[in-house]
Each structure stands twice: as structure tokens, then as C-alpha cells.
Design brief:
This protein is mostly helical and about 110 residues long. It has a domain of about 55 residues. Helix content is about 50%, strand content about 5%. The chain is built from four helices and two strands, in the order E-E-H-H-H-H. It starts with a strand and ends with a helix.
């Protein structure tokens, strides 16, 4: 177990507090000395820490993929459109902004198609 905060992206922080008893080392985890639980809070188990790490990894992977998609969309846009939407922080938000700005059919657009 870790004795620091684990940022999960879902809950801001989970203090890594082990059960009161010491945990012996295993093939996959190191030994953890006995530490008292915080009164009023349930002890956090190794499974909870592992789950938080898995959630954090999935969240970090999602952030990387979102950045890639955001870059791919921006590359296809003109410099003017990139400047208009330069404060956008996610691909979903950028797509929604582009759709609201340019997804409206106007009479000039209809005329241009013919």
C-alpha cells in the first residue's frame, strides 16, 4: 500500500490508510507495517488501492487519447477556427463547439451546394 494520496480523477483524493494489522509481503506486494486506521473512517484495503490505481491509469489513458483526438480535429481546421477555439480543453467540447458554430444550415450554404 502507499502512504500518500492517490488521485483518481473521480474522487479528488483517497488517503491510503491500511488496516490496523501488519500485512506480510507476497509475491506481488511488499510488506506493510501496522498502522492504526483513522477514527471514523473505514480502513482502506489493498484492493481499494489497486482499484484506485486502475481507475487512475484508465483516466490518464483517456486524457492522452482525448489530447490526440483534439489535435487531430485541430489539424483539420483552419488557423482562424483554431484561434476561435483555442481555449477548448477536450475533444468532445471542441466537437460540440464546432457543431454549434458550423452545423447550422443557412440559405447561403444551401445555395453554395447547388
Amino acid at each position: 500500500m502507499e502512504y500518500k494520496y492517490i488521485n483518481t480523477g473521480v474522487r479528488t483524493a483517497i488517503p491510503a490508510v491500511p488496516a490496523q494489522a501488519a500485512v506480510p509481503a507476497t509475491a506481488t506486494h511488499e510488506a506493510v507495517p501496522a498502522v492504526p486506521a483513522i477514527p471514523g473512517l473505514p480502513a482502506i484495503t489493498q484492493q481499494m488501492v489497486d482499484d484506485a490505481k486502475a481507475i487512475k491509469k484508465a483516466y490518464d489513458d483517456w486524457i492522452v487519447e482525448d489530447d490526440r483526438i483534439l489535435g487531430a480535429i485541430n489539424i483539420k481546421c483552419s488557423a482562424t477556427i483554431q484561434q476561435i477555439n483555442n481555449e477548448t480543453i477536450s475533444a468532445r467540447q471542441l466537437w460540440a463547439d464546432l457543431e454549434s458554430q458550423y452545423g447550422i444550415t443557412t440559405s447561403a450554404g444551401i445555395f453554395n451546394d447547388f
